[in-house]
Amino acid sequence: MYRDAPPIPEKVVSTNGIVVFTSQEIVAGQQVFLKYGLMDNGSIWGHGALLGPDFSASYLHSLALHYANALSIERYQTPLAQLTATQRAGLEAEVRLELKSNRYDANTKTLAVNAAFQDWFMKQPSVWVHYFSDPALNGGLRVKAISDPTELNNLSAFVAWTAWASVTNRPESKNTYTNNFPFDALAGNTAPADALLWSALSLIFLLGGIATVLLAFGKFDYLGWKARAGYLHPKINGAQVTPAQRATLKYFAVVAVLLLTQTLVGGALAHYRADPGTFYGVDLTVLLPSNLLRTWHLQLAIFWIATAYVAGALFIAATLGGKDPAGQKKGVDILFWALVFVVVGSLLGEWAGIKQLMPDLWFWFGNQGWEYLELGRAWQILLALALIFWFGLLFRALIPALKDPEKKEIATLFLIAAVAVPVFYLPAMFFDSTTHFSVVDVWRFWIIHLWVEGFFEFFVTVIVAIIFLQFGVVSRLTATRVIYLDAILYFAGGFIGTGHHWYWTGQTSFNMALSALFSALEVVPLTLITLDAWDFVKLSKPQAGLTKKLEEVPHKWTFYFLMAVGFWNFLGAGVFGFLINLPIVSYYETGTLLTINHGHAAMMGVFGMLGIGLIVFVIRQTVTPELWLHLEKYVRMSFWGLNGGLLLMVILSLFPAGILQLSDVLENGYWHARGLAFTGSNMARMLEWSRFPGDLVFIVFGALPIAFVAVRAYFASNKQA
After folding, report:
1. Distances (CA, A) of 634 to 174, 236, 238, 637
2. Whole-angstrom distance, CA of residue 234 vs CA of residue 564
3. Cis before residue 276, ω within 30 degrees of 0?
4. Helices (H), 403-475
5. Residue 692, Cβ neighbours under 10 Å: how many?
6. Same CATH topology for 11-190 and 194-720?
7. Could you say which residues of the chain have pLDDT below 70?
8. What is the pLDDT of residue 232?
């Protein structure tokens, strides 16, 4: 990517010799785009938010239309719309030829453009002024979010460059720098042949991978979650909980509150899509514009899920180690307050950054502006340091296990999985606000895809294996075998498959070839989960002569949440993920509601459900039986509320709305489906409103009860201590 990224010309010069804009203005415009949180409003090359348009696609289409109209006035002295079909077809062919021609001189680093390009660029500040004039036009930004003429000019330069890169062919290639994305028939952007070719070949890889798994499971009957004979479910004994383990309850109380907050923010964010002009008669944009809410919605999700894993790992490490090392509880308390400082500080910083209260320090302490990595760089550094400190606590707790021959291997795997979390977060700091957009996307999706879906997935597998091992329902050999097998399957497709996010962001078709093939293999471990589902279910069921009914199993609801992880892993990550990963589908789909549909079902369904499963596990292990009898009904409500609400969101709104938007892309072009012409239509707004029942169930019957359970357990534990 560093080599093949679309070039940024030092000067863009019109045919009359006038410098239209420079590389400094393009880079400054990218900083404006980030500083004002516009990536959490609209998108560039399909990556960003869906509240506003795809800015690159919108600019490209309007440029092509402006150029066609200019030619029409010049040739026929009449607007384009009044031409005959033959005349119009001829002019549009000329427009496509002009736009596709690459007039960038690599030696002088100068880009030559025609008068129509210059004329349209000069009109852009007024276009932006109109866009920022009304929240109903832009998906809920505050009025006059950007008003400085210099910033508007620089923003125009950045977006104009992204449009140029998306329509101009690479030297000696029939494809543009973005592989012909976005789809726009007027501009001549149509799906490249490579997208069809590698989509077909990736299906062969998929079939081969699934066949291999089927063969392995048929040949080797010891693969997967095989219950050990004669196991007994453990009895709960609160006296065995160490002080450091009990100290993790405050983590889970905060986790549950952050989850509830995130759902409320998400509900308000969904309202901005359904009715961006007003929040039930209140102008919410003054205090909480939509781009701020989306920033918080993403960051809160990452924070509460990661914190649940951090706390769960601390609890399980103490179980493996058998006792607390000296000062462990104090270390757990210090880490807690460090994480609280980072969470609260970064959220407030993002608010101050978007409100432009720190014009010179926005990148460090405010809102970086990169989707999913919005927290300021200083907060990122503190988070990484906190994760390193967390690893130190885990290592101290696991020292006795590392000396025990029976536990050494599983404890070592635990540490390897844990150290990967801080180490592989470091690419989040490999760029800044001036780094080339295409290069940033490589490292951004390293975090979004590999850190979360790869290393966290591996970490999750280790945690689940240790929980089952501690329950006594699987043998040590089974637990370690599952960890190794899952690691091989997740990373075999996941590493190179990450590139399916980069099809249209400036990579060559070579990336498409590799990424399409290996991305298809990511479905294989998810198929493994479904094959192994029955064994997984049997782990939670009592065996004859041991217990009489499932209700007697102390960790029944932990098992249920783990089963939910398997269900959503297959549906959200497998079905919905594979649906949009084929290059030929991704070309038309990326940056539509089908992406959000996959994101919600996979992020909340898989990582979220596991985080809540850890909450339930630790609380059940810690509180008294009497208190658990009181709390269990709320856990039951939360389980069905979260899963039912998420399913309603998907079925009633996200999936059908995504299909409708994809249909509009195919019929009218990407620019149309991402603009108000579609998002402001009656059908699109109705489908947005249809999210309300699912959101309500998720918040009231899902997030609220688990928040009550976690907070109640924390205060009860304090009294016990």
Report:
1. 59, 19, 20, 5
2. 22
3. no
4. 408-423, 437-445, 457-471
5. 17
6. no
7. 217, 221-239, 473, 525-553, 720-721
8. 47
Return the exposure string of 72-100: e unless at least 16 CB atoms fall within 10 Å of the residue's CB, then b.
beeeeeeebeebeeeebeebbeebbebbb
Where does residue 389 rank: exposed (0-12), middle (13-18), buried (19+ CB within 10 A)? middle
Token representation of residue 595 = 């992406």
How many alpha carbons lie under 13 Å from residue 308 in its C-beta half-sphere? 28
Q: Residue 48 belongs to what H/E stretch?
A: strand 47-48
CA-nearest of 300, 209, 213 to 258 is: 300
**Cα→Cα distances 4→86, 272, 439, 452, Å:** 39, 38, 10, 27
Which residue's entry shows tokens 């497998």?
574
Given a contact cutoff of 8 angstroms between Cβ atoms, the answer to whether 202 and 519 are in contact is yes
**What CA–CA distance (Å, rounded) separates 172 from 78?**
36
Distance between CA atoms of residues 357 and 377, nearest Å: 17
CATH 1.20.210.10 corresponds to the domain 194-720: yes
Q: Report the candidate in 653, 580, 657, 570 with the shortest Cα–Cα distance to residue 609.
A: 570
Cα angle 244-413-519, degrees, rounded to a multiple of 5 = 120
Beta-strand pair 373-375/47-48: unpaired
Does the global pTM surpass 0.90?
yes
In 10 A of CB 329, how many CB atoms?
18
Beta bridge partners of 422: none
Question: In this structure, which topology does domain 11-190 adopt according to CATH?
Answer: Cytochrome Bc1 Complex; Chain D, domain 2 (1.10.760)
DSSP state, 226? P
CA 667 to the chain's CA centroid: 28
Classify 264 as helix, strand or coil. helix
* Burial (0-12, 13-18, 19+ Cβ within 10 Å), 470: middle
> Torsions phi, psi of 41, nearest 5?
-120, -60
Length of the chain measured in residues = 721
pLDDT, tens digit (0-9, with 9 covering 90-100), for 448-498: 888 877 888 888 888 888 887 877 767 788 788 888 887 887 788 888 889
Count of CB atoms within 10 A of residue 229's CB? 7
Structure token digits, residue 704: 């609220």
Nearest 5°: phi and psi at 110? -120, 140
Where do the structural domains in the chain lie, given as residue ranges? 11-190, 194-720
* Distance in angstroms (rounded) separating the CA atoms of residues 453 and 525: 12
Q: What pLDDT was estimated at residue 235?
A: 45
- The 10s digit of each residue's pLDDT in 266-321 is 999 999 999 988 888 888 899 999 999 999 999 999 999 999 999 999 999 998 88
Task: Assess contact for 123 and 152: CB atoms under 8 A.
Answer: no
Torsion sign over Cα 628, 629, 634, 637: positive
Return the pLDDT at 685: 94
In sequence order, which residues have a C-beta less than 8 Å from that of residue 219 and are 6 or more positions away?
Answer: none
Provide the terminal-to-terminal Cα distance of the chain, rounded to the nearest Å.
55
- pLDDT value of position 179: 96
